[in-house]
Design brief:
Layout lengths: L2 E4 L2 E7 L3 E2 L10 H16 L4 E3 L7 H12 L5 E6 L4 H14 L5 E6 L5 H14 L2 E7 L6 H10 L4 E5 L11 H8 L2 E5 L6 H5 L17 H7 L1
Parallel strand pairs: 3-4, 4-5, 5-6, 6-7, 7-8, 8-9
Antiparallel strand pairs: 1-2
Helix pairs in contact: 1-2, 5-6
Length: 227
Amino acid sequence: MLTRPIPKNPSEKLPVIGLGTWQTFNVGGSAAERDPLTEVLRRLFASGGRLIDSSPMYGRAEEVTGELLAALGSPKPFLATKVWTTGKDAGIREMKRSMKRMRSERMDLMQVHNLLDLETHWPVLREWKKAGTIRYLGVTHYAQSESGRIERLMRSEALDFVQIPYSLARRQAEERLLPAARDTGTGVLVMQPFETGELFRRVKGKSLPPFAAELDCTSFAQFFLKK
């Protein structure tokens, strides 16, 4: 699998394909619900993937992720989650709970989810990074309307990562956010690269275009990501 260096730490590389846990990992405890997710994790690691992203917003996803990883005995993943609440004390409690759920004494990446109460959480994240409780810090948002704010943060704060929507059908990030990330050395995590499955629904029953071979693509998934 292709890898890319983390801009703020070029000595560390991450695989270009990660795993999100929104909705899919918010399941119960039955084997019917969890066995397919265990197989997803096996295939991720077997293919060279490592990054797994979650959030307390995602129901039981953090807890399920931690339990499946512990049972799988997998190689050490790069774990990312988020703080999604208001207030300093509430944020600290939530982040500690997330780390416990994901069974990680040190979180690789902690992000302020949808910029919620950013001004309160940001000083805490900086302190935690300095103390080694987290390795990297960042922000996320799903809305195009917040692109300007995210760009300003990249240019004014020492962000390690931003997580933003970007896909073949939604390319607005190319206008300002991706150039800002390049200029500031900020890593980019892409959310919804397949538009929650909509891209696959659009090509259902269709064949790959002939020019996909020029991109070394043998599936629509590869095509959507590379194009």
